[in-house]
Amino acid sequence: MLDDKNSFNYDNRNLSDVFKELQEIRNNPQAQEAYAKQAKKAKKHKPKAKLSKVKNNSNVFASNFRTKDRTSTPKSNDLKLSHIITGCGILVVSMALFFPKDLAFTESYASTDTSQTVENYELNRHRLNMQSIISENAGMDRVKEQATEERDVEFETTYNDNPTLPKGEEIVTQEGVLGKDSVTVVKTYENGNFVEETILARTNLVEPTSKIISRGTSEFLAKHQVHIGDTMYLVSDDKLKSEANDTSSDVADIKSSIDVKLLELPSEDWAKVSFDGVEGYIKTSNLTSPTTTPNIVEKNRVQRILLKVNIGMELNKSSGLTLNDYKKIFTNLPNDKNKIFEDNYQVFYNMEKKYNINGIFLASIAIHESAWGSSNIANDKHNLFGYGAYDESPYESSQDFDSYADGIETVAKSLVKYYLNPAGTKIYDGETAAGWYYNGPTVEGVNTRYASDENWHTKVYSYMEMLYNRLKS
Protein backbone atom coordinates (compact mmCIF):
# COMPACT_ATOMS: atom_id res chain seq x y z
CA MET A 1 0.00 0.00 0.00
CA LEU A 2 0.99 3.62 -0.47
CA ASP A 3 2.25 5.30 2.66
CA ASP A 4 2.14 8.98 3.41
CA LYS A 5 5.30 9.51 1.36
CA ASN A 6 3.79 7.80 -1.72
CA SER A 7 6.42 5.05 -1.64
CA PHE A 8 6.00 1.33 -2.01
CA ASN A 9 5.88 -0.63 1.19
CA TYR A 10 6.42 -4.26 0.48
CA ASP A 11 6.69 -5.36 4.09
CA ASN A 12 3.99 -7.18 5.98
CA ARG A 13 1.59 -7.53 2.97
CA ASN A 14 -0.28 -10.64 1.99
CA LEU A 15 -2.23 -11.43 -1.23
CA SER A 16 -5.46 -10.10 0.16
CA ASP A 17 -3.85 -6.73 0.84
CA VAL A 18 -2.52 -6.57 -2.67
CA PHE A 19 -6.00 -7.08 -4.17
CA LYS A 20 -7.53 -4.46 -1.91
CA GLU A 21 -4.82 -2.04 -2.91
CA LEU A 22 -5.53 -2.85 -6.55
CA GLN A 23 -9.25 -2.04 -6.07
CA GLU A 24 -8.46 1.31 -4.44
CA ILE A 25 -6.09 2.29 -7.21
CA ARG A 26 -8.58 1.25 -9.89
CA ASN A 27 -11.30 3.47 -8.43
CA ASN A 28 -8.99 6.48 -7.84
CA PRO A 29 -7.44 8.10 -10.93
CA GLN A 30 -4.98 10.15 -8.82
CA ALA A 31 -3.84 7.02 -7.04
CA GLN A 32 -3.39 5.29 -10.43
CA GLU A 33 -1.13 8.11 -11.62
CA ALA A 34 0.90 8.12 -8.40
CA TYR A 35 1.15 4.36 -8.37
CA ALA A 36 2.33 4.30 -11.97
CA LYS A 37 5.09 6.79 -11.13
CA GLN A 38 6.15 4.80 -8.06
CA ALA A 39 6.07 1.59 -10.05
CA LYS A 40 8.27 3.11 -12.70
CA LYS A 41 10.63 4.44 -10.03
CA ALA A 42 10.63 1.14 -8.20
CA LYS A 43 11.37 -0.70 -11.40
CA LYS A 44 14.37 1.58 -11.95
CA HIS A 45 15.91 1.29 -8.50
CA LYS A 46 14.77 -1.97 -6.97
CA PRO A 47 16.82 -4.43 -9.02
CA LYS A 48 20.12 -2.84 -7.87
CA ALA A 49 19.17 -3.16 -4.25
CA LYS A 50 18.18 -6.73 -4.71
CA LEU A 51 21.40 -7.63 -6.52
CA SER A 52 23.39 -6.00 -3.80
CA LYS A 53 21.50 -7.86 -1.20
CA VAL A 54 21.97 -11.09 -2.99
CA LYS A 55 25.65 -10.44 -3.35
CA ASN A 56 26.02 -9.62 0.33
CA ASN A 57 24.27 -12.77 1.29
CA SER A 58 25.90 -15.04 -1.25
CA ASN A 59 28.81 -15.91 0.94
CA VAL A 60 26.59 -16.60 3.84
CA PHE A 61 24.38 -18.75 1.67
CA ALA A 62 27.37 -20.55 0.32
CA SER A 63 28.87 -20.97 3.72
CA ASN A 64 25.67 -22.29 5.06
CA PHE A 65 25.25 -24.55 2.17
CA ARG A 66 28.73 -25.92 2.51
CA THR A 67 28.45 -26.42 6.20
CA LYS A 68 24.97 -27.81 5.71
CA ASP A 69 23.70 -25.40 8.34
CA ARG A 70 19.96 -26.01 8.12
CA THR A 71 19.18 -23.18 10.47
CA SER A 72 19.70 -20.50 7.74
CA THR A 73 17.39 -22.12 5.15
CA PRO A 74 14.04 -20.80 6.45
CA LYS A 75 15.33 -17.21 6.30
CA SER A 76 16.44 -17.64 2.70
CA ASN A 77 13.04 -19.17 1.73
CA ASP A 78 11.10 -16.34 3.41
CA LEU A 79 13.03 -13.77 1.46
CA LYS A 80 12.23 -15.41 -1.91
CA LEU A 81 8.55 -15.71 -1.10
CA SER A 82 8.40 -11.98 -0.37
CA HIS A 83 10.01 -11.26 -3.70
CA ILE A 84 7.50 -13.46 -5.49
CA ILE A 85 4.51 -11.84 -3.77
CA THR A 86 5.79 -8.36 -4.54
CA GLY A 87 6.38 -9.23 -8.19
CA CYS A 88 2.89 -10.68 -8.54
CA GLY A 89 1.41 -7.52 -7.04
CA ILE A 90 3.31 -5.31 -9.46
CA LEU A 91 2.19 -7.49 -12.38
CA VAL A 92 -1.47 -7.29 -11.35
CA VAL A 93 -1.31 -3.51 -10.87
CA SER A 94 0.30 -3.07 -14.27
CA MET A 95 -2.43 -5.13 -15.93
CA ALA A 96 -5.12 -3.04 -14.24
CA LEU A 97 -3.52 0.21 -15.38
CA PHE A 98 -2.61 -0.60 -18.94
CA PHE A 99 -5.32 -3.01 -20.10
CA PRO A 100 -8.90 -1.82 -21.03
CA LYS A 101 -11.25 -1.43 -18.14
CA ASP A 102 -13.70 -3.97 -19.57
CA LEU A 103 -10.98 -6.63 -19.44
CA ALA A 104 -10.08 -5.96 -15.82
CA PHE A 105 -11.57 -7.74 -12.90
CA THR A 106 -14.89 -6.33 -11.91
CA GLU A 107 -14.63 -7.13 -8.24
CA SER A 108 -11.86 -8.17 -5.92
CA TYR A 109 -11.47 -11.86 -5.45
CA ALA A 110 -11.32 -11.11 -1.79
CA SER A 111 -14.93 -9.87 -1.93
CA THR A 112 -17.47 -12.31 -0.60
CA ASP A 113 -20.47 -10.74 -2.52
CA THR A 114 -20.59 -12.81 -5.73
CA SER A 115 -24.11 -11.71 -6.83
CA GLN A 116 -22.81 -8.27 -7.97
CA THR A 117 -20.12 -9.91 -10.06
CA VAL A 118 -22.63 -12.13 -11.89
CA GLU A 119 -24.83 -9.15 -12.73
CA ASN A 120 -21.95 -7.37 -14.50
CA TYR A 121 -21.64 -10.08 -17.10
CA GLU A 122 -24.11 -10.49 -19.97
CA LEU A 123 -24.93 -13.83 -21.46
CA ASN A 124 -24.64 -13.89 -25.27
CA ARG A 125 -27.91 -15.46 -26.33
CA HIS A 126 -27.46 -14.84 -30.06
CA ARG A 127 -24.37 -16.66 -31.07
CA LEU A 128 -23.32 -16.35 -34.70
CA ASN A 129 -23.57 -19.41 -36.89
CA MET A 130 -20.52 -18.83 -39.04
CA GLN A 131 -21.17 -21.94 -41.16
CA SER A 132 -24.62 -20.67 -42.08
CA ILE A 133 -23.28 -17.21 -42.97
CA ILE A 134 -20.55 -18.64 -45.17
CA SER A 135 -23.01 -21.00 -46.89
CA GLU A 136 -25.52 -18.26 -47.61
CA ASN A 137 -22.93 -15.91 -49.11
CA ALA A 138 -21.25 -18.65 -51.05
CA GLY A 139 -24.61 -19.54 -52.70
CA MET A 140 -25.64 -15.92 -53.54
CA ASP A 141 -25.93 -15.19 -57.26
CA ARG A 142 -25.35 -11.44 -57.87
CA VAL A 143 -25.64 -10.33 -61.49
CA LYS A 144 -25.36 -6.91 -63.13
CA GLU A 145 -26.57 -6.12 -66.60
CA GLN A 146 -26.66 -3.00 -68.77
CA ALA A 147 -29.75 -2.15 -70.81
CA THR A 148 -31.20 0.71 -72.89
CA GLU A 149 -34.96 1.08 -72.80
CA GLU A 150 -37.76 3.58 -73.40
CA ARG A 151 -39.51 4.93 -70.37
CA ASP A 152 -42.58 7.13 -69.85
CA VAL A 153 -42.09 10.69 -68.68
CA GLU A 154 -44.84 12.04 -66.45
CA PHE A 155 -46.64 15.19 -67.56
CA GLU A 156 -47.26 18.25 -65.44
CA THR A 157 -50.69 19.52 -64.43
CA THR A 158 -51.38 23.25 -64.61
CA TYR A 159 -54.41 25.18 -63.36
CA ASN A 160 -56.00 28.26 -64.94
CA ASP A 161 -58.55 30.44 -63.16
CA ASN A 162 -61.82 30.72 -65.09
CA PRO A 163 -64.39 33.38 -64.04
CA THR A 164 -67.07 31.77 -66.24
CA LEU A 165 -67.16 28.58 -64.14
CA PRO A 166 -68.68 28.14 -60.67
CA LYS A 167 -66.15 28.58 -57.91
CA GLY A 168 -64.61 25.26 -56.92
CA GLU A 169 -65.55 23.50 -60.17
CA GLU A 170 -62.82 22.15 -62.43
CA ILE A 171 -62.88 21.22 -66.10
CA VAL A 172 -60.05 19.55 -68.02
CA THR A 173 -59.41 21.72 -71.07
CA GLN A 174 -56.39 19.72 -72.27
CA GLU A 175 -55.59 16.12 -71.48
CA GLY A 176 -52.04 15.33 -70.45
CA VAL A 177 -49.88 13.07 -72.63
CA LEU A 178 -46.89 11.09 -71.38
CA GLY A 179 -43.48 11.78 -72.91
CA LYS A 180 -40.74 9.27 -73.75
CA ASP A 181 -37.10 9.00 -72.64
CA SER A 182 -34.36 6.62 -73.78
CA VAL A 183 -32.61 5.46 -70.61
CA THR A 184 -29.37 3.48 -70.26
CA VAL A 185 -29.17 1.71 -66.91
CA VAL A 186 -27.18 -0.91 -65.02
CA LYS A 187 -29.50 -3.25 -63.15
CA THR A 188 -28.45 -5.45 -60.25
CA TYR A 189 -30.09 -8.80 -59.47
CA GLU A 190 -29.55 -11.14 -56.53
CA ASN A 191 -30.78 -14.68 -56.94
CA GLY A 192 -32.93 -13.52 -59.84
CA ASN A 193 -34.57 -10.69 -57.89
CA PHE A 194 -34.12 -7.06 -58.88
CA VAL A 195 -32.22 -5.11 -56.24
CA GLU A 196 -31.25 -1.72 -57.65
CA GLU A 197 -30.32 0.18 -60.75
CA THR A 198 -27.94 2.96 -61.72
CA ILE A 199 -28.87 5.33 -64.55
CA LEU A 200 -25.93 5.99 -66.86
CA ALA A 201 -27.58 8.18 -69.49
CA ARG A 202 -30.98 9.67 -70.37
CA THR A 203 -32.10 11.09 -73.73
CA ASN A 204 -35.49 12.70 -74.31
CA LEU A 205 -37.40 11.28 -77.28
CA VAL A 206 -40.85 12.91 -76.89
CA GLU A 207 -41.70 15.86 -74.67
CA PRO A 208 -44.74 15.31 -72.40
CA THR A 209 -47.88 17.40 -72.95
CA SER A 210 -49.13 19.20 -69.85
CA LYS A 211 -52.59 18.58 -68.50
CA ILE A 212 -54.51 21.86 -68.25
CA ILE A 213 -57.38 22.24 -65.81
CA SER A 214 -59.70 25.24 -65.83
CA ARG A 215 -60.67 26.12 -62.27
CA GLY A 216 -63.84 28.17 -61.68
CA THR A 217 -63.79 31.36 -59.63
CA SER A 218 -67.37 32.73 -59.99
CA GLU A 219 -69.20 32.89 -56.68
CA PHE A 220 -72.39 33.96 -58.50
CA LEU A 221 -72.51 30.79 -60.59
CA ALA A 222 -71.61 28.66 -57.58
CA LYS A 223 -74.35 30.22 -55.47
CA HIS A 224 -77.07 29.48 -58.04
CA GLN A 225 -75.45 26.25 -59.31
CA VAL A 226 -75.70 27.27 -62.96
CA HIS A 227 -73.37 27.46 -65.96
CA ILE A 228 -73.09 29.64 -69.00
CA GLY A 229 -75.92 28.62 -71.35
CA ASP A 230 -78.34 27.68 -68.56
CA THR A 231 -81.75 29.25 -67.94
CA MET A 232 -82.16 31.77 -65.14
CA TYR A 233 -85.15 33.76 -63.94
CA LEU A 234 -85.84 37.34 -62.93
CA VAL A 235 -86.60 38.05 -59.31
CA SER A 236 -88.55 41.23 -60.15
CA ASP A 237 -89.52 43.33 -63.16
CA ASP A 238 -86.49 44.82 -64.85
CA LYS A 239 -85.19 46.43 -68.04
CA LEU A 240 -82.75 44.77 -70.38
CA LYS A 241 -79.79 47.10 -71.01
CA SER A 242 -77.73 47.54 -74.16
CA GLU A 243 -74.48 47.57 -72.13
CA ALA A 244 -73.34 46.40 -68.72
CA ASN A 245 -74.09 49.64 -66.87
CA ASP A 246 -77.08 51.52 -65.49
CA THR A 247 -76.77 54.49 -67.84
CA SER A 248 -77.02 52.50 -71.08
CA SER A 249 -80.21 52.44 -73.12
CA ASP A 250 -83.11 50.06 -72.50
CA VAL A 251 -83.58 47.14 -74.89
CA ALA A 252 -86.68 45.45 -73.46
CA ASP A 253 -88.92 45.20 -70.40
CA ILE A 254 -88.87 41.86 -68.61
CA LYS A 255 -91.46 40.74 -66.08
CA SER A 256 -90.63 38.96 -62.84
CA SER A 257 -90.24 35.16 -62.99
CA ILE A 258 -89.56 35.30 -66.74
CA ASP A 259 -86.78 33.07 -67.97
CA VAL A 260 -83.67 34.27 -69.78
CA LYS A 261 -80.71 32.40 -71.21
CA LEU A 262 -77.34 33.16 -69.59
CA LEU A 263 -74.85 34.00 -72.37
CA GLU A 264 -71.84 35.62 -70.70
CA LEU A 265 -70.62 36.80 -67.32
CA PRO A 266 -68.49 39.90 -67.92
CA SER A 267 -68.36 40.53 -64.17
CA GLU A 268 -69.88 39.35 -60.93
CA ASP A 269 -72.33 42.27 -61.12
CA TRP A 270 -73.59 42.02 -64.71
CA ALA A 271 -74.69 39.16 -66.95
CA LYS A 272 -75.37 39.07 -70.67
CA VAL A 273 -78.65 37.27 -71.37
CA SER A 274 -81.07 36.48 -74.16
CA PHE A 275 -84.77 37.23 -73.66
CA ASP A 276 -86.94 35.72 -76.42
CA GLY A 277 -84.14 36.28 -78.94
CA VAL A 278 -83.26 39.79 -77.73
CA GLU A 279 -79.81 40.10 -76.19
CA GLY A 280 -78.78 42.55 -73.52
CA TYR A 281 -77.36 42.97 -70.03
CA ILE A 282 -79.02 42.66 -66.65
CA LYS A 283 -77.76 42.82 -63.07
CA THR A 284 -76.87 39.48 -61.55
CA SER A 285 -78.56 40.53 -58.29
CA ASN A 286 -81.92 40.29 -60.08
CA LEU A 287 -81.34 36.75 -61.36
CA THR A 288 -82.17 33.51 -59.62
CA SER A 289 -82.34 29.76 -60.30
CA PRO A 290 -84.40 26.75 -59.19
CA THR A 291 -81.65 25.99 -56.67
CA THR A 292 -82.04 29.24 -54.80
CA THR A 293 -85.78 29.73 -55.59
CA PRO A 294 -87.42 26.29 -55.80
CA ASN A 295 -90.87 27.51 -56.97
CA ILE A 296 -89.52 29.80 -59.66
CA VAL A 297 -90.17 27.32 -62.48
CA GLU A 298 -93.88 27.15 -61.65
CA LYS A 299 -94.04 30.92 -61.39
CA ASN A 300 -92.34 31.17 -64.75
CA ARG A 301 -94.91 28.85 -66.34
CA VAL A 302 -97.75 31.00 -65.11
CA GLN A 303 -95.98 34.20 -66.08
CA ARG A 304 -95.37 32.90 -69.57
CA ILE A 305 -99.12 32.20 -69.88
CA LEU A 306 -99.96 35.67 -68.63
CA LEU A 307 -97.60 37.27 -71.13
CA LYS A 308 -99.77 35.90 -73.92
CA VAL A 309 -102.93 37.37 -72.47
CA ASN A 310 -103.96 40.36 -74.56
CA ILE A 311 -107.03 41.55 -76.36
CA GLY A 312 -105.69 40.30 -79.67
CA MET A 313 -104.76 36.79 -78.47
CA GLU A 314 -105.92 33.81 -80.55
CA LEU A 315 -108.80 31.99 -78.92
CA ASN A 316 -108.87 28.87 -81.12
CA LYS A 317 -105.92 27.48 -79.17
CA SER A 318 -105.49 25.92 -75.76
CA SER A 319 -104.69 28.37 -72.97
CA GLY A 320 -101.99 26.08 -71.56
CA LEU A 321 -103.67 26.05 -68.16
CA THR A 322 -103.89 22.87 -66.10
CA LEU A 323 -106.94 21.53 -64.30
CA ASN A 324 -105.43 22.80 -61.04
CA ASP A 325 -105.08 26.23 -62.66
CA TYR A 326 -108.80 26.22 -63.47
CA LYS A 327 -109.62 25.16 -59.95
CA LYS A 328 -107.49 27.95 -58.52
CA ILE A 329 -109.09 30.52 -60.85
CA PHE A 330 -112.73 29.61 -60.17
CA THR A 331 -112.61 28.73 -56.48
CA ASN A 332 -113.97 31.40 -54.12
CA LEU A 333 -114.75 33.98 -56.78
CA PRO A 334 -116.28 36.92 -54.86
CA ASN A 335 -119.12 37.50 -57.37
CA ASP A 336 -119.97 33.84 -57.89
CA LYS A 337 -122.72 33.92 -55.28
CA ASN A 338 -124.39 30.69 -56.38
CA LYS A 339 -121.08 28.83 -56.95
CA ILE A 340 -122.16 28.11 -60.53
CA PHE A 341 -118.69 28.72 -61.99
CA GLU A 342 -116.87 27.11 -59.12
CA ASP A 343 -118.99 23.98 -59.56
CA ASN A 344 -118.37 23.89 -63.33
CA TYR A 345 -114.65 24.80 -63.56
CA GLN A 346 -113.83 21.31 -64.83
CA VAL A 347 -116.47 21.65 -67.60
CA PHE A 348 -114.70 24.74 -68.94
CA TYR A 349 -111.37 22.87 -68.77
CA ASN A 350 -112.80 19.87 -70.64
CA MET A 351 -114.22 22.10 -73.40
CA GLU A 352 -110.76 23.53 -73.98
CA LYS A 353 -109.19 20.08 -74.31
CA LYS A 354 -112.02 18.62 -76.41
CA TYR A 355 -112.77 21.44 -78.84
CA ASN A 356 -109.57 23.44 -78.85
CA ILE A 357 -111.15 26.65 -77.57
CA ASN A 358 -109.82 28.92 -74.85
CA GLY A 359 -111.81 27.92 -71.73
CA ILE A 360 -111.24 31.26 -69.97
CA PHE A 361 -112.74 33.08 -72.96
CA LEU A 362 -115.73 30.73 -72.86
CA ALA A 363 -116.23 31.35 -69.12
CA SER A 364 -115.84 35.12 -69.55
CA ILE A 365 -118.70 35.16 -72.09
CA ALA A 366 -120.85 33.22 -69.61
CA ILE A 367 -120.05 35.65 -66.78
CA HIS A 368 -120.83 38.68 -68.94
CA GLU A 369 -124.07 37.33 -70.48
CA SER A 370 -125.52 35.87 -67.25
CA ALA A 371 -124.31 38.53 -64.79
CA TRP A 372 -122.38 35.84 -62.84
CA GLY A 373 -125.21 33.36 -63.27
CA SER A 374 -127.84 35.62 -61.68
CA SER A 375 -130.04 36.21 -64.78
CA ASN A 376 -133.46 34.58 -65.12
CA ILE A 377 -132.36 32.79 -68.27
CA ALA A 378 -129.36 31.34 -66.40
CA ASN A 379 -131.39 30.29 -63.38
CA ASP A 380 -134.45 29.02 -65.18
CA LYS A 381 -132.97 27.51 -68.32
CA HIS A 382 -129.36 26.63 -67.30
CA ASN A 383 -128.43 28.95 -70.13
CA LEU A 384 -125.40 31.07 -69.11
CA PHE A 385 -124.94 32.60 -72.59
CA GLY A 386 -128.45 33.69 -73.61
CA TYR A 387 -127.95 31.24 -76.41
CA GLY A 388 -130.70 31.58 -79.10
CA ALA A 389 -132.14 34.80 -77.64
CA TYR A 390 -133.16 37.76 -79.76
CA ASP A 391 -133.28 41.34 -78.66
CA GLU A 392 -137.05 41.56 -79.08
CA SER A 393 -137.82 38.61 -76.78
CA PRO A 394 -134.60 37.38 -75.13
CA TYR A 395 -136.15 35.21 -72.42
CA GLU A 396 -138.73 33.55 -74.65
CA SER A 397 -136.34 32.96 -77.56
CA SER A 398 -133.39 31.67 -75.49
CA GLN A 399 -132.77 27.94 -75.50
CA ASP A 400 -133.43 25.75 -72.48
CA PHE A 401 -130.78 23.19 -71.29
CA ASP A 402 -130.97 20.32 -68.88
CA SER A 403 -127.80 21.39 -67.10
CA TYR A 404 -125.18 24.12 -67.14
CA ALA A 405 -122.74 21.65 -68.62
CA ASP A 406 -125.02 21.00 -71.60
CA GLY A 407 -125.37 24.70 -72.29
CA ILE A 408 -121.59 25.29 -71.97
CA GLU A 409 -120.76 22.49 -74.43
CA THR A 410 -123.37 23.62 -77.00
CA VAL A 411 -121.99 27.15 -77.08
CA ALA A 412 -118.35 25.87 -77.26
CA LYS A 413 -119.11 23.76 -80.35
CA SER A 414 -120.97 26.62 -82.02
CA LEU A 415 -118.13 29.12 -81.48
CA VAL A 416 -115.54 26.65 -82.85
CA LYS A 417 -117.60 25.77 -85.91
CA TYR A 418 -118.94 29.19 -86.93
CA TYR A 419 -116.90 31.99 -85.28
CA LEU A 420 -113.31 31.01 -84.39
CA ASN A 421 -112.10 29.08 -87.44
CA PRO A 422 -112.19 29.80 -91.15
CA ALA A 423 -114.23 27.50 -93.35
CA GLY A 424 -112.66 24.12 -94.02
CA THR A 425 -110.59 24.00 -90.83
CA LYS A 426 -110.55 20.54 -89.29
CA ILE A 427 -112.21 20.68 -85.90
CA TYR A 428 -113.81 18.13 -83.57
CA ASP A 429 -115.24 14.66 -84.41
CA GLY A 430 -113.82 14.70 -87.96
CA GLU A 431 -115.88 17.75 -88.93
CA THR A 432 -114.68 20.92 -90.58
CA ALA A 433 -115.47 24.48 -89.63
CA ALA A 434 -118.25 26.27 -91.52
CA GLY A 435 -116.79 29.67 -90.78
CA TRP A 436 -120.03 31.52 -91.45
CA TYR A 437 -119.30 34.25 -88.91
CA TYR A 438 -115.53 34.10 -88.88
CA ASN A 439 -113.82 37.49 -88.60
CA GLY A 440 -110.61 36.39 -86.93
CA PRO A 441 -109.91 34.12 -83.92
CA THR A 442 -109.92 37.04 -81.46
CA VAL A 443 -112.47 38.36 -79.02
CA GLU A 444 -112.94 41.41 -81.23
CA GLY A 445 -113.42 39.20 -84.28
CA VAL A 446 -116.14 37.23 -82.53
CA ASN A 447 -117.81 40.48 -81.44
CA THR A 448 -118.41 41.40 -85.09
CA ARG A 449 -121.16 38.86 -85.66
CA TYR A 450 -121.87 37.46 -82.19
CA ALA A 451 -123.15 40.54 -80.34
CA SER A 452 -124.80 43.77 -81.36
CA ASP A 453 -122.90 45.68 -78.65
CA GLU A 454 -119.77 47.13 -80.25
CA ASN A 455 -118.00 47.17 -76.87
CA TRP A 456 -118.89 43.60 -76.11
CA HIS A 457 -115.35 42.39 -76.76
CA THR A 458 -113.77 44.84 -74.27
CA LYS A 459 -116.21 43.82 -71.56
CA VAL A 460 -115.55 40.13 -72.15
CA TYR A 461 -111.80 40.69 -72.26
CA SER A 462 -111.87 42.50 -68.89
CA TYR A 463 -113.32 39.35 -67.34
CA MET A 464 -110.61 37.31 -69.06
CA GLU A 465 -107.88 39.47 -67.51
CA MET A 466 -109.47 39.22 -64.09
CA LEU A 467 -109.63 35.43 -64.23
CA TYR A 468 -106.08 35.04 -65.55
CA ASN A 469 -104.65 37.32 -62.87
CA ARG A 470 -106.02 35.03 -60.18
CA LEU A 471 -103.14 32.72 -61.06
CA LYS A 472 -100.73 35.19 -59.45
CA SER A 473 -102.23 34.84 -55.99
In total, how many domains does the architecture comprise?
4
Strand residue percentage: 15-25%
Continuous helix count: 16
Q: Mean pLDDT, rounded to whole units?
A: 82
Q: Strand order, biggest sheet?
A: 12-11-10-7-13
Q: How much helix, percentage-wise, in residues?
A: 40-55%
Instruction: Enter the CATH topology name of the largest domain.
Output: Lysozyme
- Poorly predicted runs are 1-8, 46-79, 100-123
* Main sheet characteristics: 5 strands, antiparallel
Please report the first level of CATH classification, the CATH class of the largest domain: Mainly Alpha
Tell the overall outline.
elongated
Which CATH architecture of the largest domain is right?
Orthogonal Bundle
End-to-end gap: 122 Å
Chart the SSEs and their pairings.
Elements: H1 15-26, H2 29-67, H3 73-98, H4 115-119, H5 130-138, E1 142-153, E2 157-166, E3 170-174, E4 179-190, E5 193-206, E6 211-218, H6 219-224, E7 231-234, E8 238-241, E9 250-254, E10 259-264, E11 270-275, E12 278-283, E13 287-288, H7 296-307, H8 323-330, H9 340-343, H10 345-355, H11 359-370, H12 376-381, H13 394-397, H14 404-419, H15 443-450, H16 456-469
Parallel strand pairs: 2-6
Antiparallel strand pairs: 1-4, 3-6, 4-5, 7-10, 7-13, 8-9, 10-11, 11-12
Helix pairs in contact: 1-3, 2-3, 8-10, 10-11, 10-14, 11-16, 15-16
